[in-house]
Amino acid sequence: MNWLMSPAHHRWLEAESHRLIGFAEASKHPDGGFGFLRTDGTLDESRDVELWITCRMTHVFAIAALMGRPGAAALVDHGLDALRGRLYDVEHGGWFAAVDAEGPTNTAKEAYGHAFVILAASSAKAAGREGASAMLRDALDAHQTHFWDEAEGMSRESFNRDWSEEEDYRGINSNMHMVEAYLAAADVTGERDLLQRALRITERTVHGFAREHEWRLPEHFTSEWQPILDYNESTPAHPFRPFGATIGHWFEWSRLTLQLAASLEQSGHAAPEWMLADAQDLFEAAVTQGWAVDGMPGFTYTVDFEGVPVVRERMHWVSAEAIAAAAVLWQRTRADRCADYYREWWDFVGEYHVDAVGGSWWHELDSQNRRASTVWEGKVDVYHALQATIYPRLPITPAIAASLASENLR
Predict the structure, then answer these.
(1) Helices vs strands, H then E, count in the chain
(2) From 2, 56, 128, 362, which residue has the greatest number of CB atoms within 10 Å?
(3) Is 249 a catalytic residue?
């Protein structure tokens, strides 16, 4: 049976969506924004409120509101209030990376976090929340002014608080999330030029860097976009900038490439022929080099540039992105192997990652699929897992929130 076409499986996905959202509701921080959830699902108020977490949860609750979940709209507004308030830099513009009760604790202006501001505002706009349109315009303007590098066709990485000093580093992770953000923003604003920016980033990354390195996509670059293949070699398990190539990102780029191609075609522009072939090759490379490489089911976190596993722990988000990529690639190709992978990976998640008692998913497992915390502690994030339950029930395009607003959910 093909689960991707099964109404019964879709009902299970629906139930899992709401289970994850219910768990995430505890992340509401009393001082504004959304905070860090411990493994038991309680809020750790001693930790900073971080921009990326607040944005992801605002996006999650916008999805929940569009799915008709009572109370979710108020949580979207709670997130927007924090993005207008304690996380926003009134003096210099842009958003702080983190704040506590006294004010900003990390004043860096990071492309990664700003990409999620665009995503959160886009989803809130799709959900019809007051002030979301203005925030989205501010976020797009901030990225245009400070991060977008027209000559390179890529995003810069980070600046100090007043934008006077720029980090001498470029990262693929932040550029990946800018593609995601541009897709979401284009759908709710009608600004199709954002798709051309997303295409420039994707072509250079997937058709360039990934292909040139036999699909082992480098993550870290100099400011001139030269790969730094030994970056963080001494700290390979870094949660945001690990050494080597990150398997989960290959799946994300595969999915985003297909979604961008569909968005281009829907807007009347021909998608370059390389997009489908490269998305398939990147997906297959992630399966071959990431899945069950040490004799146990699960995806290794990273490999080196010979394809040898480096950090063998299994991150929940990698499994979620593999599932989402399989679902989207199946929609595009109807290939049986994608449906087979999809079912196999959900079986793995159900057996090892899902915490049916405590809620959400265990965020990290070791190479023997025992609970671990080498890279991540707590259960801070439902963004990846939630999206894995929704992509199989939506068309390839538009982006999730816009698609839900168009009543495309199956």
Answers:
(1) 14, 15
(2) 56
(3) yes
